[in-house]
């Protein structure tokens, strides 16, 4: 598989939904496969909260491949012998695109809290500007899960002729109080951690010492992402064999799992980016907060294929079903909905690929009505 990583620099202002301007800004992105002569084989992949542009493949010294490597590649579900795949790092994220820790031009000092609050629409708008600069004005498909699914829905509504097919997974048309509450735990834990220094921390300190507040927030997220079924299956009531049952801080295996994953997280993910991304997800509303959802969904022209997961406890299946039902009530036939029987909660779109990969191939080959 041909894999390339590039950074695009833009000097024209990006006008944001908040009324603010981002100028200049950069977007780092990866491509997989080869663009065909008429540019008709493009698939856009949108990443989730803690994801990045590195969706597939492996760099020479890399321990793990990209986050959707089992899904994208030569001969895989998204076959890079057939498709040209693009995945950008969202602006606001901390893996190379402009973010709160980027220099606040013309100063060399980082934005920190001077960075603007972004919306999903802003992120997608920046991606469209990138694609236009590459001469890509129409794509075969847009696919994304969770926050990536929000972007996919945004494409369907705001750029109704950009894609033939759009596949949102494990997402919602507007963020409900349950998900906002989960994010609130993370945001409060970060803000009140003394090591956060009111946003004036140094990156090197976080790499060396971590940030307990972000780790605690990540634990709250992991509980929602993994879900009860997966935790029961993985851990049961198993107790850490090195810990005594009657030690106050002795741990069940599920506690040890949370510690291991959460306390490593601040060493790779920036807390300011986490705060801003949580805010972006919290304020997402496909109806833009003014129109009715029906008015927004009525704009969709592409084939919209909605996929939910039965034990997702972050964005529940009924949230996806609402989109389908609303479109059907509008008399639209360009929509399908399927719920995958899953056991890995919200993260099923990342780990239970065998349950839906053939379905994705059928969609891309126009075998799903």
Description:
An eight-stranded mixed β-sheet has the order 1-4-8-5-9-10-11-12. A two-stranded antiparallel sheet has the order 2-3. A two-stranded parallel sheet has the order 6-7. It contains eleven helices and twelve strands. The longest helix has 24 residues, at 212-235. It has two domains: 3-175 and 286-364, Rossmann fold (3-Layer(aba) Sandwich), CATH 3.40.50.1820; 179-279, Rna Polymerase Sigma Factor, Chain: A. With 369 residues, it is an alpha/beta fold.
Task: Please give a quick description of this structure.
The chain is of the alpha/beta class.
What is the topology, as strand order, of the major beta sheet?
Answer: 1-4-8-5-9-10-11-12
Order of helices and strands: EEEEEEEEHEHEHHHHHHEHEHH
Regions with pLDDT < 50 over 5+ consecutive residues? none
Q: Biggest sheet: strands, sense, closure?
A: 8 strands, mixed
SSE diagram, text form:
Elements lengths: L2 E8 L3 E2 L5 E2 L2 E8 L9 E5 L25 E2 L4 E2 L4 E5 L31 H14 L5 E7 L1 H12 L4 E7 L7 H15 L11 H7 L2 H24 L17 H12 L6 H12 L10 H5 L5 E7 L7 H13 L5 E6 L7 H4 L5 H8 L5
Parallel strand pairs: 5-8, 5-9, 6-7, 9-10, 10-11, 11-12
Antiparallel strand pairs: 1-4, 2-3, 4-8
Helix pairs in contact: 1-2, 3-5, 3-7, 5-6
Output the keywords.
369 residues; alpha/beta; Rossmann fold; Rna Polymerase Sigma Factor, Chain: A; eight-stranded mixed sheet; two-stranded antiparallel ribbon; 17% strand
């Amino acid at each position: 598989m041909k894999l390339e990583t590039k950074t695009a620099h833009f000097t024209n202002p990006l006008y944001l939904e908040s009324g603010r301007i981002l100028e200049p800004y950069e977007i780092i992105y990866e491509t997989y496969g080869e663009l065909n002569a008429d540019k008709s084989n493009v698939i856009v992949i949108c990443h989730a909260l803690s994801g990045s542009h590195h969706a597939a493949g492996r760099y020479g010294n890399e321990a793990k491949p990209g986050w959707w490597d089992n899904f994208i590649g030569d001969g895989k579900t998204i076959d890079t012998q057939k498709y040209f795949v693009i995945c950008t790092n969202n602006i606001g994220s901390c893996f190379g695109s402009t973010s709160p820790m980027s220099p606040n031009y013309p100063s060399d000092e980082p934005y920190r809290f001077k960075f603007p609050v972004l919306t999903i629409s802003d992120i997608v708008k920046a991606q469209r500007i990138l694609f236009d600069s590459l001469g890509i004005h129409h794509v075969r498909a847009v696919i994304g899960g969770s926050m990536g699914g929000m972007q996919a829905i945004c494409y369907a509504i705001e750029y109704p002729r950009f894609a033939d097919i759009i596949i949102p997974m494990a997402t919602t048309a507007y963020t409900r109080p349950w998900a906002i509450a989960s994010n609130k735990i993370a945001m409060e834990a970060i803000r009140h951690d003394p090591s956060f220094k009111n946003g004036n921390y140094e990156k090197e300190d976080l790499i060396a010492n971590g940030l307990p507040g972000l780790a605690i927030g990540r634990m709250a997220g992991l509980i929602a992402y993994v879900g009860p079924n997966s935790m029961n299956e993985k851990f049961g009531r198993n107790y850490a064999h090195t810990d005594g049952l009657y030690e106050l801080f002795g741990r069940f295996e599920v506690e040890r799992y949370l510690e291991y994953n959460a306390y490593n997280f601040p060493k790779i993910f920036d807390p300011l980016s986490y705060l801003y991304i949580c805010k972006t997800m919290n304020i997402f509303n496909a109806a833009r907060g003014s129109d009715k959802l029906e008015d927004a969904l009525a704009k969709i022209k592409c084939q919209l294929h909605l996929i939910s997961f039965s034990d997702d406890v972050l964005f529940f299946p009924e949230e996806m079903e609402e989109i389908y039902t609303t479109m059907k009530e509008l008399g639209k036939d360009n929509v399908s909905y399927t719920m995958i029987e899953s056991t890995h909660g919200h993260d099923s779109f990342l780990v239970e690929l065998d349950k839906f990969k053939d379905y994705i191939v059928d969609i891309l080959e126009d075998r799903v009505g």
